[in-house]
Write a structure and sequence with these properties.
By secondary structure, this protein is an all-alpha fold. It has a single domain, classed as Amino acid/polyamine transporter I, CATH 1.20.1740. It is 73% helix and 0% strand. It is built from 20 helices and no strands. The radius of gyration is 22 Å and the shape is globular. The two termini are 23 Å apart. This is Amino acid permease. One of its GO terms (cellular component) is membrane. It is found in: Membrane.
């Protein structure tokens, strides 16, 4: 259960300055990233038909909604910064809560910033040929720009996030809105086995659904900033659920348009399916490469900004509980942001920009990150019987929703484990072996300080 805040503490805490728009912008901005530029082809390859491609994104998106229902309930019960860390702590799993933040800081969050910054620099190379050290310096510049923006103002950062999210959606809406008038019905239906769905067909559909799951990752980003959302018990559930439907609508519209303009073979073989799709639309076809490059820059800029904005909040929350370096709990007296946490996370990310092989190695922690998600949904089962668990929003059909969220995440865990079993296990052991001693050290320090 959360400790009551004293007046001295409240003066050094983050304020509620963000509204519903920021909740949606964080979720959509984080989810709709560079992945969609390649995942369309990957899902087409797995699904094997145009109809299954569309169904894969539709069903895959619908299956992700229960996860957002879970986060909406948890966030309405504990509207404070920290996301998963808070939910584990409140469920009574304090060591697990610490490990959640420990892994996020060292293995998952800074690498995501460095990877996105490098992606922006690579997309910019379409217009300005840069490579080698110059490309990495451009990536560093983007990290520094957004670090300063989110360090100086959470309100300004929230407004920028809302604007950039709108800008990243507009090109997709234009491609869908214009492209849908040029759809060829026979092309869409030619590869759709409507009357002959066999076991093999069902297996292909399931493979396609599985391939979409990463495209929907990140929709609960706002949960990490729950302590800075105005009217959180209303805005968080509403924003999280709207995010799920916005992303679902965007992806289904995109796949529907792609399936009507390209054969599934063309999509599956393409390394740049969005660019190929744009090239098939008469109105914009001649400028497809330029349009998609601009789209890619805007899309990844939005995701980079989002991550720099919300990710440092977990270390801030841990520091406030005495489970991380105290400096991470500092709030800037003028800007009212967790400035030290933002600075350090960006500094680690910049280091990784110059150590790409290390960044790739940290990708093996994906298995551990998925385990965190799986266990987060499980906290609802534990919390529902606790007196202090009083969510303002209660999801419909709770057992079913929690079950679906855990099954979908469990499927991802299995597929990730198959991809790199030894590396995944080593990373999990490394997280525990390095994290638990630090946890018990900090807890001993907390007990000593409490006894004084």
């Amino acid at each position: 259960m959360s400790n009551p805040k004293t007046p001295s503490q409240s003066a050094n805490e983050l304020k509620r300055k963000l509204g519903l728009g920021a909740v949606i912008a964080l979720g959509v901005g984080t989810t709709v990233g560079s992945g969609i530029f390649s995942s369309l082809g990957e899902v087409a390859n797995a699904a094997g038909s145009s109809l299954f491609l569309v169904l894969a994104f539709l069903i895959g998106g619908l299956l992700q909604i229960p996860a957002n229902f879970c986060y909406a309930e948890l966030a309405s019960a504990f509207p404070e910064d920290g996301g998963q860390y808070v939910y584990f702590k409140e469920a009574g799993f304090r060591p697990l809560a610490f490990l959640c933040g420990w892994i996020s800081f060292w293995a998952t969050d800074p690498p995501s910033i460095s990877i996105m910054a490098l992606a922006i620099a690579n997309y910019l190379a379409f217009f300005i040929p840069v490579h080698g050290i110059i490309l990495r310096l451009v990536a560093v510049a983007f990290v520094l720009i957004f670090m300063m923006m989110h360090l100086r103002s959470v309100e300004g950062g929230g407004k920028f996030q809302t604007i950039i999210t709108a800008l990243k959606i507009i090109p997709f809406v234009l491609i869908i809105g214009i492209g849908i008038f040029f759809i060829k019905g026979e092309l869409f239906l030619s590869s759709a086995p409507l009357a002959t769905v066999t076991a093999t067909g069902f297996t292909a559909l399931m493979a396609g659904i599985s391939a979409t799951t990463w495209s929907f990752d990140g929709m609960a980003a706002a949960c990490y900033m729950s302590g800075e959302i105005r009217e959180p018990k209303k805005n968080l559930p509403r924003g999280l659920i709207l995010t799920a439907f916005i992303v679902l609508g965007l992806y289904v519209g995109l796949t529907l348009t792609a399936s009507g303009l390209l054969s599934v073979d063309e999509l599956a073989a393409s390394e740049a399916p969005i660019a190929l799709l744009a090239s098939k639309i008469p109105v914009i076809g001649n400028y497809a490469g330029t349009i998609v490059a601009i789209m890619a820059v805007i899309v990844v800029v939005g995701s980079l900004s989002s991550c720099i904005m919300f990710q440092p909040r977990i270390e801030y929350a841990m520091a406030k509980d005495g489970l991380f370096f105290k400096s991470f709990g500092k709030v800037h007296p003028k800007y009212e942001t967790p400035y030290f946490s933002i600075l350090v996370q960006c500094a680690v990310a910049i280091t990784l920009i110059f150590a790409s092989s290390l960044s790739d190695l940290l990708g093996y922690f994906t298995l551990v990150a998925l385990m965190k998600n799986f266990l987060t949904f499980g906290t609802i089962i534990v919390l529902r019987n606790k007196a202090h668990y009083q969510p303002a929003y209660r999801m419909p059909a709770r057992p079913l929703m929690v079950g679906i969220a855990m099954v979908i995440t469990g499927t991802l865990i299995w597929s990730t484990f198959i991809w790199a079993p030894v590396a995944g296990i080593v990373c999990a052991l490394l997280a525990v072996v390095t994290g638990l001693p630090v946890y018990y050290f900090w807890e001993s320090q907390n007990k000593k300080n409490a006894g004084k």
